[in-house]
Amino acid sequence: MPPPPLHVLSEAEKNELLLAQHDMIERTAARISELEELVGKPRKTSKNSHVPPSKDDFGKGGGKGRKAKPGKRPSREGKHRPLAETPDKIERVIAAACGHCGGDVSGQTQRCRHRYDHIDLPPIHPVVTRVELLGGRCRGCGHRYRAQAPAGMEPGTPFGPGIHALLAYLHHSHHVSFERLSRIASELFGLSISQGAIANAF
Questions:
Q1: Backbone phi, then psi, for 144, in 5-degree steps?
Q2: How many domains in the chain?
């Protein structure tokens, strides 16, 4: 909307109009200065500003982040687990039939064509040893005697040093609670052991 003719305005209205125009000119000049400063500056990315990486425009600029061309990637040198020096068991399998024609080859001389290690854990279950301490009456003094218990199998707790060591390791090194230790013993080893018995083991 064009301003009214100046000759119809009072002095106060003219002054008000001049002040409004001056304010608009100041704001316009400030905005122009800001735009001039932006000219030539690098585009804002996550590396030079607070812009998140997801907002980076990889489709423009220096070529970083360009989409990979479709096709097979360059192959890398494969890494394989080395064979064990002393395997616990060697399983030699003789071919029974030719994989091409189906002919019987079981009677032919064969040599190793492929070798690899198969690693697994054996079934883990507690070993229960019944200890019987024999004794009798001494013919020399007449007192009763009894055999000494084997080392590590003394009367008292039925659990041996291997179980104690495992419980202590899980509890102290991995902070496994008594309740979870009881569950682990039951679910993994089929061993029923109460939380109280676990607490007494330490």
A1: -80, 145
A2: 1
pTM for this structure?
0.47
What would the pLDDT profile of 102-124 be if each residue is shown by its tens digit? Answer: 999 999 999 999 999 999 988 88
**Which helix H or strand E contains 137, and what residues bound it?**
strand 135-137
Contact 82, 119 (CB under 8 A): no
How many residues does this entry show for the chain?
202
- Residue 37 in any domain: the answer is yes
Query: What's the pLDDT score for residue 84?
Result: 92
CA dist., res. 116 & res. 100, Å (int) = 23
Give the range of the structural domain holding residue 28, as residue numbers without chain letter: 9-41
Q: Which tokens belong to 182?
A: 């009881």
Tally Cβ neighbours within 10 Å of residue 121: 5
The average confidence (pLDDT) of the chain is 82
Q: Are the C-beta atoms of 154 and 164 separated by less than 8 Å? A: no
